[in-house]
Amino acid sequence: MASKLIGQIALFKLDNESIGKMEKIGAFKLFDTLAKERQQLSDFEEALFRSIRWFSNHLDQYEIENQFLSLVVCLETLLTPRDNDPICNAIAEGIAILSITNDNNGDDMIEKRMDLKSRVKKLYRKRSGISHGGKKQMFESEVRELKMIAMILLMEMIRRKHEF
User: What pTM does this model have?
Assistant: First the structure.
């Protein structure tokens, strides 16, 4: 069965509100990178675009488990360690360090990071159960939480891409 779409998939309204949202998520900071030839991209820029593709891929998935796995791969793309560190721990620590910044109270920031690391590790453990055929129950609230974590990390990576 074949089909063909002509025209836009969805209405995209370009107004001050949508421009403000694009600015907030860092879309304009990516424009200069999009203008580069592929061979001119740094390893980080390539990883960032792969991560963004995996994030957007989760939106196209019907099954909640596939949404979850796409979001996990989004995180793995940016934070998989190069050495032999356990991947779960490396990703959880990376997210906690990169996502929680500029807090006035140092103790509070450490506590928030430890809490986020713990939550990410708990979510990440479900990944193995899903991808290796285990029967892990998945809740929409967990996918929403992982989506927020991925969005925050992506926005932070886009904001700080000049550092990498």
Answer: 0.80
